Amino acid sequence: MSKATFSVLILCVLLVACGSNSEENGYAEAADTFCSCMSEKISENKDDIIKNVNIGLCALEVEVDYKDKRFVEALETKCSEIAVDFQRYLN
Length: 91
Hints:
Distance between the termini: 51 Å
Largest sheet: none
Mean pLDDT: 78
Strand content: under 5%
Structural class: mainly alpha
Number of strands: 0
Number of domains: 1
Order of helices and strands: HHHH
Helix content: over 70%
Radius of gyration: 18 Å
Shape: elongated
């Protein structure tokens, strides 16, 4: 194996390893953003229809795919009571 091929292989491994961790952090940060948004909205109104609208509005603020299971898992960790409503919203 040539030095160039070996260097490219090492670089690819490093990029994959680092990218995975930063992606997980992205979901955690998105969950923080979503939970903060929903906390503000819940204090304003507790009606179920309005809650669904607020979930939709807060989902627009996150910068990840909010349907991804990693985002839902991060929500369950950060704000489990809101995660239940979010699960209902997705279904």
